[in-house]
Amino acid sequence: FLEYVNMRLISIYNQDIDFSGLNESADRTVRTDSSGNANYVQVTFTMGAQYAPNLVSGGLIPLDSVRAGRGTFISGTTLEHLCMEYTEGNATAGDDIGLTGYADDIQIFNDMLDQPSGCAPRSNMCVSPETVPDQFVSFNIPLGFQVFDGQASNSLENNIFVSMVINALDKMNAGPNPNGGDNPMQMKTTLEASIPIVDGGVNIFCDGITAK
To answer: Rounded to whole angstroms, how far apart are CA atoms 109 and 98?
Structure first.
């Protein structure tokens, strides 16, 4: 049913627009602004060729099933419904998003994903795909701000945990129009996964585009 499940932790830093630092100039920008960062976790997987999103019952990834948290063991970690918070009532400026203790204005989060100049490769949060033509699924969960700061550990004691329902139809065993009411053959499972917080690499988009 599910194959090649993978997770990735991502921090987005503001574009460096202050060139007053040592060895900096407007034509030789240096790295990113370290004043803050927005964080999300990306979950990817592939489905077997016979499976398709179940659009009748909550979509491929029902948003009310998506939970995430940070801790050492999942048994002692509170998993929060971050996608419901992100999408409920078309959340607007002033509404907080993020894990408890790491939440702030959703508009700040979205602005950091995009950057003022629109140069960043903004990723969509909490979007359950309606079609998967290549059977590859990518799903992003907003975690908040500074969630990973000071948490990287060689002993892998600090982790991000994710739990979500995957809700699909088996096209080989369904009627000709399962999304229109024909007796669908539903395939549903709960995906639970974790990833340790470790130091990773840095991709610089905005400064690179400016230099180009």
So the answer is: 9
Say what the pLDDT of residue 171 is. Answer: 81
Residue-wise pLDDT tens digits, 77-124: 999 999 998 887 555 666 888 999 999 889 889 888 877 666 666 789
Token reading at 184: 């669908």
Residues 82 and 143 sit within 8 Å (Cβ to Cβ): yes
Tell me which DSSP letter residue 125 carries: S
Using CA atoms, how far residue 17 sits from 20, 29, 141, 166, 211, in Å, is 9, 8, 28, 42, 13
Contact 188/166 with Cβ under 8 angstroms?
yes
Answer whether 113's CB lies under 8 Å from 97's CB. Answer: no
Long-range own/partner contacts, residues 106-114 (CB < 8 A, 24 or more apart): 108/38, 108/145, 109/38, 109/142, 109/144, 109/145, 112/12, 112/13, 112/14, 112/36, 112/37, 112/38, 113/12, 113/38
The pTM for the full model equals 0.83
Task: State which H helix or E strand residue 186 sits in.
Answer: strand 186-196
From the list 95, 39, 87, the residue with the least C-alpha distance to 65 is 87
- H-helix or E-strand containing 109? helix 106-114
pLDDT of 18 = 62
What backbone phi and psi angles, to 5 degrees, belong to 165? -95, 135
